[in-house]
Amino acid sequence: MAFKHQLILWAAVMLAILAAASASVGDQCVPGLVMPHNPLGACRTYVVSQICHVGPRLFTWDMKRRCCDELLAIPAYCRCEALRILMDGVVTPQGVFEGGYLKDMPNCPRVTQRSYAATLVAPHECNLHTIHGSPYCPTLQAGYGVVF
């Protein structure tokens, strides 16, 4: 009798795991579902301030905290995608281009901005996990992504 209950419990656990996995596959990293349409506004300000030396230089710790809070609110498996949208933008299902706010600036090329944005999840910045198993977002490194 105990074996039958263990088998039913095991089957219930397996079904719960499968249901959770299939639920997350359908909405993975889709702006508007698991993350905002234009994620990481505070990170945009922080990157430009740190790399391009444009905008407020006071209270850098507060800008960093706000950026890290925004990244923390996004599921770990979508953090690099949110950073990619910050850099490259995304076309919504309605065909509207959103994001991609960081552009080439005098003495501040996009490739430098991308490299810095890739490390926002690193221990010396926000110390957050991603699905890549590395302390940065490799898809944001030079040579990746779309340039608009």
Automatic annotation (TrEMBL):
SUPFAM superfamilies: Bifunctional inhibitor/lipid-transfer protein/seed storage 2S albumin (SSF47699). GO terms for molecular function: serine-type endopeptidase inhibitor activity. It is found in: Secreted. SMART domains: AAI. Gene3D superfamilies: Plant lipid-transfer and hydrophobic proteins. Residues 1-23 form the signal peptide. One of its GO terms (cellular component) is extracellular region. Residues 29-137 form the Bifunctional inhibitor/plant lipid transfer protein/seed storage helical domain. Belongs to the protease inhibitor I6 (cereal trypsin/alpha-amylase inhibitor) family. This is Trypsin inhibitor. It comes from Triticum monococcum subsp. monococcum.
